[in-house]
Amino acid sequence: MLARKPPMGWNSWNTFGWNINDKLIRETADAMVETGLRDAGYEYVVIDDCWSLRRRGPDGRIVPDPEKFPYGMKDLADYIHSKGLKFGMYSCAGTMTCAGFPGSFDHEFLDAETFASWGVDYLKYDFCFKPNLANGPILYNRMAMALKATGREILFSACNWGSDNVERWIRSSGAHMYRSTGDIWDNFDSIRRIARSQMDKLAYSGPGCYNDIDMLVCGMYGKGNVGGNAGGCSDLEYRTHFALWCMYSSPLMIGCDVRNMSEETRKLLLNRDLIAINQDEEARPPMFFIGNSESGRVGMFRHLSNGEYAFAFVNYDDREGGMVCQLYDIGLTVDSGYGFELTDIFTGEVRGPYNDYFGVHRLQPHEIKVYKARLVKM
């Protein structure tokens, strides 16, 4: 089964936008191997919009831009596969892509056949320039059927930005992940807005079809396509961003230039404990025991496999603060005979066991604390 766990990889859009070419994609694949990203689970290398000519060829097929991709997509796919990685591409459910290149509307089966012939393993499918009378759920279902008709396993990434109550029907369309938000920008306001917006929608996500809350901006530092006018984030804010995406079981699609990562970014993206939470086989959503979509501070609790749990406390406020978890609020009582022993994901500090309450007394603005937890006899 595809997407047994949240997909992981890299996408060209956040940093490079229009400025993509064969050399960049090959160097990115090399860097994913050399930095350890591939071995940590990041397996897809995905080319986003702007890879083709403006018009289809005489045979009706989409034509890769020969200046950007002089060796063609099959040769590039073969190179990526030789690195032990998988190759992803982009199209759109409308007549044009968001940047004005040919979309797949009314060409779904031909385009799917073309992608499969090139060795594509992943298709991101956007929602721009959809005719008003065309039905979104049918268009996504059509492309899912077209991909399956090729006989090749191609992960289908639906990207309709949360339109049409997508979480309620997308699993039935055959998609393996679905964008449930507008575009992310490289600033904390954008990260906070997206994370809050999904608090009541995470129960729709699970194995086989994951809620994609957009690509990561970790390590961009204000550079690139979604960073230049957005200001960038601090390393602490990127840590909060990555940890939230892991707690939410969102696909982890890196958006920075992995050829030139800071050491802090590399360590964050390779954090084994956070990745383990994201990739937990049960993929259960967290429950929120403090706060709501308007709150400045939020606490969440998540069941993991193998009898483990995770707690996270996030301070969305622009001022320092803390919070207390009343364990009764997640169902644990003092007379149960059990308490939670907690291990701080970032420091390794062990706390507890606690059977009544425990506090996170000081969180910097925009900081998150994440704990792995287990129940122990008191």
Q: What do these coordinates show?
A:
This protein is of the alpha/beta class and 378 residues long. It contains 10 helices and 16 strands. It has helices at residues 13-16, 22-34, 37-40, 72-82, 108-118, 136-149, 188-197, 235-247, 263-269, 272-278, and strands spanning 8-11, 44-46, 86-92, 122-126, 155-159, 177-179, 210-212, 252-254, 287-290, 297-303, 309-315, 321-326, 338-344, 350-354, 357-363, 368-377. An 8-stranded parallel beta sheet has the order 7-6-5-4-3-2-1-8. A 6-stranded antiparallel beta sheet has the order 9-10-11-16-13-14, covered by helices on one side. The protein has a two-stranded antiparallel ribbon with strand order 12-15.
Topology:
Layout lengths: L7 E4 L1 H4 L5 H13 L2 H4 L3 E3 L25 H11 L3 E7 L15 H11 L3 E5 L9 H14 L5 E5 L17 E3 L8 H10 L12 E3 L22 H13 L4 E3 L8 H7 L2 H7 L8 E4 L6 E7 L5 E7 L5 E6 L11 E7 L5 E5 L2 E7 L4 E10 L1
Parallel strand pairs: 1-2, 1-8, 2-3, 3-4, 4-5, 5-6, 6-7
Antiparallel strand pairs: 9-10, 10-11, 11-16, 12-15, 13-14, 13-16
Helix pairs in contact: 5-6, 7-8, 8-9, 8-10
